[in-house]
Amino acid sequence: MLRSLADQTEDQLGGRRSVLSRQKRDHVDLDRLIKAAESANGHHREAVLTELCRLVFPHAFAEEAVLWPAIRRLADGEQLTLEIEKEHQAINELFTTLETLDADSDEHHRLFAEITRLLREDVRDEEDVLLPRLQEATDRDELVRLGTWWQIVRSTAPTRPHPVVARRPPGNAIAAAPLTALDRFRDLLDAAARSDRPWSSAARSTSGVVATAAGAIEHLPPLTRGERPATRTSHAGKHRR
Question: DSSP labels for 181-214?
Fold first, then answer.
């Protein structure tokens, strides 16, 4: 019988370096950041949301690049990962819209509540179904090997939503290098923009320019290749920055 990751110790999950333990630790951090964002406002809310994005999107990118290909080799793995990819796609789309809104507006709070619901649903689907299936079919050494690759990809992945980029190879692999560089530059610019220093306005404007460049890059045809059409929503191709 499959057991949720939430009900298992670190040792039962394969040790600290196991991909299951790494995933579970990120999920704990996710819950902490969601709660922090819900109670924050102004620049502090913006900063927490940036930190949340730096967790959510590299985490999901590493799943899509490392874990889901392994799970698709299991019985029903294709359908299981497709459902998670749909959740990831929806979260990317909603976060893209969130970035255009004032952090203290009612619409921002409403949209963030919807994102929070999807993120927590995603965690439950992964911890209760998808990852226990992987655990059942994988030995401890392989879980550690997957964890090493997962961490490498996570550490070098984009940190912003990119709803047009494919959720599968080769598109997501091609997208990694240019979008990671632009996203992490934007993270620095946005931190400077929140500083209320003389250059904060220039940093905010430059961040907007970089966001536009990233939006243009993610629409390049090679970056959209490999994804199952069922993953896309009716709005996925319409997103622009």
Answer: HHHHHHHHHHHHHTTTSTTHHHHHHHHHHHHHHH
Q: Six-digit token pair at 72?
A: 């698709």
What is d(CA 144, CA 49) in angstroms, rounded to the nearest whole number? 30
- Spatial contact of 211 and 193, defined as CB atoms under 8 Å apart: no
**In this structure, what DSSP letter does residue 155 have?**
H
pTM of the model: 0.93
Rounded Cα gap, residues 95 and 103, in angstroms: 12
Contacts within 8 Å (CB) and 24+ apart, 36-40: 37/112, 38/112, 38/116
Residue whose pair of structure tokens reads 């998670």 in the numeric block: 84
For the stretch 96-142, pLDDT in tens is 999 999 999 999 999 999 999 999 999 999 999 999 999 999 999 99
